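Quick review question:
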């Protein structure tokens, strides 16, 4: 893949990582707020786990692009 295309993919991957970090942070805050008000947060924690797995995939993808750029 040409370098300019890889750089475009890297920009997109970075946006996904940043958005994912914000989503995880927001979800953690919501869970804390719900817990403080006595709500059952079981499902919220399960959703957070999904967000965390997705975030790990975003980071892995970004790191793969970075490695490809380093070897190009």
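Suggested answer, residue by residue:
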């Amino acid at each position: 893949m040409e370098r300019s295309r890889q750089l475009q993919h890297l920009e997109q991957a970075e946006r996904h990582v940043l958005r994912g970090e914000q989503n995880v942070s927001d979800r953690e805050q919501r869970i804390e707020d719900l817990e403080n008000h006595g709500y059952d947060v079981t499902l919220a924690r399960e959703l957070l786990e999904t967000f965390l797995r997705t975030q790990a995939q975003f980071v892995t993808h970004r790191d793969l692009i970075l490695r490809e750029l380093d070897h190009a």
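Why it works: Residues 3-70 form one domain. The chain is about 90% helix and 0% strand.
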